[in-house]
Every structure is written in C-alpha cells, then in structure tokens.
Amino acid sequence: MSEQLCGLIPVYNNPLTIKAVAMKVRQFIDHIIIVDDGSDDETASILDQLSADDPEHITVQRMPSNQGKGAAVQAGLKLAQAKQFSHALQVDADGQHVLADIPRFIEAMKKNPNALIIGAPIFDDDIPAIRKHGRKLTVAIVALEAGSLKLPDAMCGFRIYPVQPTCALGRMGSRMSYDPEVMVHAHWANIPFIIIPTQVRYLSAEEGGVSHFRMVRDNLLNVWAHTRLTLQAPIRWLLRWAKQ
Asked: Which one of 8, 24, 104, 194 is most buried, counting C-beta atoms within 10 A?
C-alpha cells in the first residue's frame, strides 16, 4: 500500500455493486474517497454503513444533488488534494473493471509518479454495439484534439491521477465528457501517460449493471465539449511543443 495513494469512486445509484467494489479496492489501497453524486436509492444507506464500519479508511463525500460523474470526480480530487494525497486511483462503481489489476496500476505509478496512468480497455463480446462504435469515434476525435495517435480509449474510468497536476488543469465538464476532456488537457499540459491494458465487461441488469448515460443530454454535452477542445487544439499544440 502507498500512504500517498487514495482510491476514488464516484457513485450514483449503484446499490448492487458499490460495496463489493469498495471492499475490493480496500484490499490494495489504505484509504478510499467515495463521492455520492446525489444517489436517491439504497446506495446512500449502503455508503453510510461502509463509512460507519470503517471511518478511518473510508470517506464518503456527498454532492447536494446529481451533478454528473465529472463533477463527482473533480470534487473527489479536490478532497484528495486537501487530504494531501499525491495520487488518486479512480474506478467506476458499477463493477465493470477488473480490480485485480490495481497492483499493476500502482506499480506503474511508483515507477512514473508524474504520469497519468490510464486503463486501455479490452472488451468482451458483451459490449453493446452502439458503445463499441461510439468509443471508436471518440478515440478518433481525441486524437485530432490532442494532435497524437498515441492516446488510449478516453472513456475508460480506470486510471490513476497525479492529484496536484490534475487539479491545476482547472475546472472541466461535469458529466460524461470529463473523462476524455481531462485526458486531452493533460496531454496539452505535457503530463506523461502510461497505458495499462485492462479487461472491461458490461454487467447485466441482474448483476447490477446500469448506465446513467442520457442519450440526448449527454451527447449534446459531449458535442459541446469536443467542439471547445477542437477549437482550442491548434494553439494548444503550439504551446505544448514550445514547452518541449
């Protein structure tokens, strides 16, 4: 375990999976920050119990209302910074990540403490077709914005952030667009990337798999985020190259 590394789990209405995810992360990381993004089901009471059972190692931060994954992650990073953690390992609360890979991420962090450690997802056949092709489109757009073909799938929520450099990038989108947006900004800021291949699977509803992606709202927000990034890209490329 590393005293400077915390876990970071944004959660919104994942009652069937959040306890198992938190307990698995705790096997590898001493302290976990769970950010409850306004859950309005039994998730909130499960988090209360987790915190009550282990207040020394589990911190639950409450958002006043559902504001989106990006807002939850950013709030968690600010809390991690206030608690003087140097790094935060983010995983999704829905159980889709293979958390047995956490030691590989930690090892990469220790060897590359200034880097953003990014999970590159390996999918089984259970990935919905619309998500598969949507991810391919996002990868292409991110490559254009970053000016690089070396960036991984930007939608994977399994990653280790260097806390201070990430917080210094400034405020970004509050919902699903945050994952690719922070990766592009990190690349522009010359934060190095380490890519770790990791298995990802989509759970059935019976297993607790649930998507909070809202087709119209989140697609519009994604379009707006990528429009902003694309317009900024040329000057950002120049600034990045000037710093090298």
From this structure: 8
DSSP-based three-state secondary structure for 30: coil
Out of 143-152, 166-175, 216-225, the most confident range is 166-175
Q: Can you give the residue ranges of every domain in the chain?
A: 5-243
Burial track 47-77 (b if 16+ CB lie within 10 A, e otherwise): beebbeeeeeebbbbebeebbbbbbbbbbbb
Average pLDDT over every residue of 82-108: 96
- Candidates 3.90.1150.10, 3.90.550.10, 1.10.150.120, 1.10.760.10; correct CATH number of 5-243? 3.90.550.10
